[in-house]
Amino acid sequence: MARMRLIVSAHVADALSVDDEDTAMALRKVTGGTGAAIRVAESHMVPDPRPGEAFEPGDTLTGRGVLILTTDNCTPGGIQRYAWTWGEAALDLGRAARIASLWKRGAVNGVGVSRLRAAWFTLKVLATALIRRPQAVIAAHLALSPVAMIVKRLLGTPYAVALHGDDAWAEPVGMTRQAVCSADLLIPVSHFTREVVTEMLELSRDRFYVTGSILSPKLQLKAMDIQRESAGAEAVTADSGKDVSGNQTLLTVSRLDLNAPYKRHDLVLRAVASLAPEYPDLKYHIIGDGPYRTDLETLAAELEIEDRVSFLGRIPEELLADENAAAYAFVMPSRISLDPPEGEGFGLVYLEAGIYGVPSVAANGGGSAETVLDGVTGILVEPDSLDSLVAGIRKLLDDEALRGQLGKTAPLRAIEFSYPVFRRKCAAVLAALTEGENPLQVEAEHDPHAIAPG
What we know:
41% helix; disordered N terminus; 6-stranded parallel sheet; Rossmann fold; single chain; 17 helices; globular; 5-stranded parallel sheet; 16 strands; 16% strand
């Protein structure tokens, strides 16, 4: 079959190549079945539909759309996924989408943005805005909010600023502070981040709308399968009832860069060492890579648990799905600090395990406490406490029935952040920016303490 090139989200972003129609159909499935976010290589503009109205394949795309500003669109990560999924959602809602990326091929850790690059990016965005005249601008990262503010000053275009995690917990200064305070809407991914920014900048809570984050495309497909399987039933998925006897593998997934220590892999290693004499089948798999890996390997050797710990490095998403599905529990007790700012702004990885019926052990604080519901989808432990972490893991290891119960509920929390839900949140944001509507009247925020009924 001839090779097809399909463009996802924005025509300034890199094209995604697929080899056959089956893959294209799978991607269409990710976008809720309409296929609106996937277009054969041809540039279109989009009409202005009613908020939440799906754009059907074959319709003509005309009109003004949405300009999305992101730091980069190529590297893996929750923020990058958030940006290009915004593009998919805009198209699926019948609006044109353009993504302007600061870095063409992904940001390099430790490398700052030069004034020349920042100026060039700003000019590129202004040129796009002048030509396309978008109805709204979404700054997918706090650092890009000044560019959105400039567009508004020149063209009157309303804009929203996404607030993710520790990048938003430090008090902004200069133009960034001005841009955040002047935004038409602030869209944090968690209630925790909203509360931090509300207090820090003394802003009204009605300036915010919590969107949550978004699962990966592969796991979105899994989420939609679970939704179908669980319709009208109390049980969630066959995976959540799987036989876990003899399986005591703990899993952590994260980058292992110089900022990784707050995720407390070291504390999990010490917990494994403490529990090892009682649990001969206990294993610990660490997925991710970076300079911090060497420190963790050294610690594992010092604790004499090298035979229990596997450093798997970076792995393809298909293998990541397998690792998540095979784990007994996902464990990542990230600490939260506002000075200096560090911690989980949302905690997407807990949901990525939960979608496979795997409960999590997380520290009680920040976004982790919204994605892991204590006693419902996992266990929350005291931050930086080895005793509390050991007790939490032991509780799951000793009680397979509890582990199964939490595993049955975990997917219900995860599907609250699947693509169809995120698309409705995007519709609410666009309704607020372009129609002046209250986004809460379009789509409710997720409850930080409970799973939504039904």
